[in-house]
Amino acid sequence: MCRIFATQDPASYALVARALRLNGHTTSIRLEAAYWTILDEIAATEGLTTPRFIGKLYDEVLGWHGEVANFTSMLRVTCTLYLRMAGRGAPGGVAEPAAARQNHAVVT
């Protein structure tokens, strides 16, 4: 099993920085390339560009928690949650689109 992890392409875990606007300020976020790929997929599922999705997520975290502590780590966990949701039998192995989740309760 370790071979699966040990032989992965080093480009997948290379750090990639992207500049975007959060709360009206331009900032740079550094994540491993694999996380950017997942965030791009989540954003597309939501019908948004990746910068717009991340900005919307940032604003929602502010609304829920009043601050955003360690946003980069939160993005990594977001990717993990997305993959877990996709693995739980959503049609086609993809997490539900936003429109299908509108009436679902959020469990924290």
Strand tally is 2
Can you identify the CATH class?
Mainly Alpha
- Oligomer status: single chain
Gross morphology is globular
Largest sheet: 2 strands, antiparallel
Query: Distance between termini?
Result: 32 Å
- Extract low-pLDDT stretches: 103-108
Helix % is 40-55%
* Beta-strand residue fraction: 5-15%
Please report the number of helical segments. Answer: 5
Plain-language structure description:
The chain is of the alpha+beta class. It has one domain: protein bp1543 (Ribbon-helix-helix fold, Orthogonal Bundle). Helices cover 52% and strands 15% of the residues. It has helices at 2-6, 33-46, 50-65, 71-87, 98-101; strands at residues 15-22, 25-32. A two-stranded antiparallel ribbon has the order 1-2. A hairpin with a 2-residue loop joins strand 1 and strand 2 (25-32). It starts with a helix and ends in a 7-residue tail after the last helix.
